[in-house]
Amino acid sequence: MVVRLGKIRSMKKYLNIIRALSTSDFKLKYYGSPFGLLWSFLKPLLMLIILYVVFYYFLGMKVEHYVWHLLLGIIFWNFFSDTTKDVMQSVNAKAHILKNVNVPPFIVIASTLVHSFWTFLIGLGVFLVLFFAFGMPFSMSMLILPVLVLLLVLLTAGVSLLIITPAVRFKDFEHIWDVFLQMLFWITPIAYQYSLVSPPYLSWYLLNPLTRVLVEARDAIFGAFPPLAPFGITVLIILLILLLGVAAFKRHGRTIIEYL
Amino acid sequence: MIEAKKISKEYRIPHEKPGTLFETILGKERKKTYETFFALKDVSFKTEGGEMVGLIGKNGSGKTTLLKILGGIIAPTSGTCTVSGYVAPFLGLGIGFHYELTAEENVFLYGAILGMARQEIKEKLDSILRFAGVERFKDMKLKHFSSGMTNRLAFSLMSQTNFDVLLLDEIFAVGDKDFIPQSLAVLENYKERGKTVLIASHNTGLLARYCARTLLLDKGSLKAFGNTEEVIREYNTL
């Protein structure tokens, strides 16, 4: 297929479509619900209360600034789990567009990512406002947060690209993914500290890129720059997943239209 | 200009389609059998720039598959095609419309999907709504629109899109007695502006009126390409 009008023009067109799709998704998500946008705060807040009560009161989790650890964990986790679920759902929901207009599937994936990213940024913004409002100190290491956020986005993008083909081809993939997310939630130190994990398992445990990004983000919030070597490993693992995702999608992504 | 060189599209018809992962795992035990089926077979043709070409054939003859390949939506199994300029496939009206959004929001969404810039849509918004006759309802959700209004809005947007090559799939049977002449006027206008248009239709009268040449597909093969009236006669004998 040759369309000789320059890549720039089509890139611009794609950006337009991504913007339009993510704007309308954002609107649709909150249309007709009385609390509207408030849900994007309410959901993590309710999750926070449940986990806090269970871990702090019932199980006696004694960690300094536990509530901030927990809230940051929930915000990072929600971005990852909501985006991967939304990507599968929105490719199915936009099947009629993909099958009839020359909008390539990666546009739909990108627009879902953009739309979830806004919600995530709002959540992170609220987190920081509350953090300072409650008198927690600013530290220079917080300046590395944007890099960690970028890593989280790249990881989520990579995983989304990896799962989209099986998600379209096999109807039960969504159930499998739900269970997988449950597992991932508990093997990621969201509600607890990774230092509680027994040493023999720790080296395996720390292979989870979500764990690494979250631990480094928490450190950054509380004034510690991540050491260079472990940070390098985080970057490496995430880039590897992203490359795998891109390769899988390049190979199979075009065929998903025929399975929709 | 559209040039197709030996385009084929092959689909597999499995005798037992594995739909779920579980079935696929079980299916490994069974022998996989499938037939191959050519939706298109060795289709080659070339149209001139600024030409309106008809596309005719019975249901299931491969018309939509051909339009999808030319529009870059699906890839052919073999063969190549070259379409010069910006291609706009219209394989159905109102694709991309979201019924929970208002008419105006839908214009922005659908317009972007059709490749229009936001600024361009803003400038054309009024004329799009006016042409569709739905200015008063621009803040109403599309789900409250009648299907005629929705179709008119979609057609109106289409008529405002900039493209070099337009691929149309049977979308003229929409609208009431007042709107059909309006939509034909749009087609007339494309003709005057020298746009390349490929129209798939069962409406032989329409093709005879607008297209000098017509393609005839039958069971995936190109049966004829030439003078519309002769091709229609051949189609009628099929």
Notes on the structure:
The complex is a heterodimer of chains A (260) and B (238). Chain A has 260 residues and is an all-alpha fold. Chain A has helices at 7-30, 39-58, 66-93, 95-100, 105-133, 145-169, 173-186, 199-205, 209-221, 228-252, 256-259. Chain A has one domain. Chain A is built from eleven helices and no strands. The longest helix of chain A is centred in the middle third of the chain and has 29 residues, at 105-133. In chain B, the strands form two sheets. In chain B, strands 5-6-7-3-8-9 form a six-stranded mixed β-sheet, with helices on both faces. Chain B is of the alpha/beta class. Chain B has helices at residues 21-27, 63-70, 103-113, 118-132, 147-159, 179-192, 204-210, 228-237; strands at 2-14, 34-46, 52-57, 78-83, 87-90, 165-169, 196-200, 213-218, 221-227. Chain B has a single domain, classed as P-loop containing nucleotide triphosphate hydrolases (Rossmann fold), CATH 3.40.50. Chain B starts with a strand and ends with a helix. Chain A binds chain B through residues 1-5, 12-13, 16-17, 19-21, 23-24, 27-28, 31-32, 96-103, 166, 170-173, 176, 254, 257-258, and chain B through 11, 19-22, 24, 68, 71-75, 80-87, 89, 91-92, 95-96, 98, 100-101, 105, 108-109, 111-118.
